[in-house]
Amino acid sequence: MTAVAWGRKFAIVAGLPAVLVAVWWFATAGSTSVYWPPLSTVLETFGPTWLEGRLASDVLPSLLRLAAGYALALALGTALGTVIGSWPKVRALTEPALEFFRAIPPPVLVPIFILFAGIGDGMKILVIMVGSVWPILLNTVEGVRSIDEVLRDTARCYRFRRRTRLIQLVLRGASPRIVTGARQALSIAIILMVISEMFAATNGLGFSIVQFQRSFAIPQMWSGIILLGLIGVALSLIFRACEARILAWYQGQRAAQR
Amino acid sequence: MSTLETASAPPPQDTTMDHDAHTTPLLDVTGLRKVFAGANRAVEALQEVTFTVSRGELMCLVGPSGCGKTTLLRCVSGLLAPSAGAVTLNGAPVTEPPRGMAVVFQEYGRSLFPWLTAWQNVELPLKEKKVPRDERKRLVTEALDAVGLTDSRNAHPWELSGGMQQRVAIARAVAYEPQVLLMDEPFAAVDAQTRGELEDLVRALWQRLGVTVLFVTHDIDEAVYLGQRVVVLSASPTVVLDDVAITLPGDRDQITTRSLPQFAELRAAIYELVQRAKNGYRPQPDTERPA
Ligand SMILES: Nc1ncnc2c1ncn2[C@@H]1O[C@H](COP(=O)(O)OP(=O)(O)O)[C@@H](O)[C@H]1O
Ligand SMILES: [Mg+2]
Known about the structure:
Chain A has 258 residues and is mainly alpha-helical. Chain A is 84% helix and 0% strand. Chain B is globular and about 55 Å long. Chain B: Pfam families: ABC_tran.
């Protein structure tokens, strides 16, 4: 890509965010409202609030819980989805129940889980996992079910071993759908990371933001929201990089079919 | 098939049989019948199909579209359980895909793993067969070379044309060193010129490897050009109409062979048979299986 092309691409990607920041900046510039502090004040507090101490004491624990809950959801969702998708009878049996569980808004789980899992890390990881597992699970079921019949026959004819069948046929065949589910699950997981810290917690991003709000540290509260947004963007960029690696074949195939 | 013959049959891995062992039946299909039970009506894809394929033979099965050729091949390869009748390979009943059998599917594009390169597609079955690494490398190289895809070894299936994809599927089957190679209308979807090339490729590989080939097609010309024998299937309800020995010379060529008077006679005879079958002709049960 040429420098001009890069420049254009950057302008497209960064254009709207720049405009929004500018609007925010000027709209709040002379603000004396307690609730809408000037953006300049918010940004001034950003460094002292987050980079001195809270990065290790609040941001890191949040991200670790997110990683643990999300990883568990990925593992459980893919494993269960593969089993359910591989046997039509199991699927018919479990589908209504799965749809029911999926329809429950995940935040409602928090008070329930506090009852029997306490208020520690375990509860928060559990909430993230249980809330974000459904899109992965249901998409995996669909993905496994829709693997090409001819490809299945091919694997049988060449007498693929169980392990090879699982990896080379089932998981890779379902991978486009698994990734779709994982993408939906990631945003749910981030929401639940914050929410699980708002009820009963001693550290974390969500906890900090609520604490700032209660102590009327409004610029700090806003800076926390900005940080959450940045973390969301960063995670989605990481996700896309992984997706480009895992689904290179799929994207190539789709481009070739056009 | 008598048990005596099966007892003397070599193990399935042995693909180095010679061509004068033509008389030994390798594959035996007896009274095969397949009915698909639908929600409101049953489809009888095969009524009663009986034939044998000898060791080292190149046999063509020809029949009109929808007569159940794919169904037949899926039963023969153990992918589909027949409603009645039996398939035996080397005297052993086929109930699941047996060792030493490779299939080239009609929907070749869909039979390749899109996440693997051409090389990996050919290599994977060999890994499953636990072929040692060096041997694997040799087999894959040779197979891709034989089908003229050496330069495309690192391409994914979707980066290749239809004809090239079909070649990858053939290379995969050939590298596997099967005892029996089943091919289901492999060239139905490629252009006429590629088709001629691929037909010659199949004959060349068959002659070189001594593999037993069961080639299914709806094209009478193709069947006559390729086969040593052509088994003609009727339209549904499907039975075997005739078993025609193709007495053309072994060295075949797209131009000279197809212009031989003998070629014209054979294809005319088969066309006539198919026409008569359309008007209700069915062979008598005792003539279904020529001695
Ligand atoms: N899985 C199936 N379920 C129901 N009917 C089938 C199935 N597979 C094939 N058939 C029917 O069996 C008949 C023969 O099909 P097929 O074997 O594909 O024919 P051919 O390969 O000769 O074109 C067709 O009428 C087809 O609709
Ligand atoms: Mg067919």
